[in-house]
Design goal:
Blueprint lengths: L1 E10 L3 E3 L3 E10 L2 E8 L4 H8 L6 E8 L5 E8 L22 H25 L8 H12 L11
Antiparallel strand pairs: 1-3, 1-5, 2-3, 3-4, 5-6
């Protein structure tokens, strides 16, 4: 779990989500960047109640944690008064929205490339141009080729 101090910029109107739950959109600044997050009542009632009543300019310490789906969730929200010290871990990679970190994005791209290479090789097997035992080896060769260093001189267009 990591923490961050945010400043509220704007609290939107509460809207109904489903039969018995509500959400409130909150625009806030975290480390100089503006984010918008929909705070769901069913996800964290305490955070929902605090954000529903928040005012522009107020500061909150927010602790976030990644859920099983890889999204950053607010697990604890505390209103900051004038005497509160900074959050314990302000340099962490806590994010307010459901954005990927650069490391997560790079990992996802690697997996997409591997999946594509395996799909291509599987097509070669189906066409009778390759044996099943060679799938992983040929897919690795295709992955290496895709990830090779780009040389713009090879493509003068």
């Amino acid at each position: 779990m990591t923490g961050s101090r945010i400043t509220i910029n704007e609290v939107g109107s509460v809207s109904k989500v489903g039969k018995n739950s509500f959400q409130v959109p909150v625009k806030y600044t975290d480390r100089g960047k503006e984010f918008t997050k929909k705070i769901m009542q069913f996800a964290n009632k305490e955070a929902y109640e605090l954000m529903r009543n928040a005012k522009a300019g107020e500061q909150y310490d927010v602790e976030v944690e990644k859920d099983d789906n890889g999204y950053w969730q607010w697990v604890k929200v505390t209103k900051v008064d004038g005497n509160s010290p900074a959050v314990a871990n302000p340099a962490s990679n806590a994010r307010g929205g459901n954005y990927e970190t650069p490391e997560e994005r790079a990992r996802k791209q690697t997996l997409i490339i591997r999946q594509s290479c395996l799909g291509s090789v599987t097509g070669m097997v189906a066409a009778g141009k390759l044996e099943v035992k060679d799938i992983v080896e040929v897919a690795a060769q295709l992955e290496d080729w895709v990830n090779r260093d780009f040389n713009p001189e090879q493509f003068p267009f």
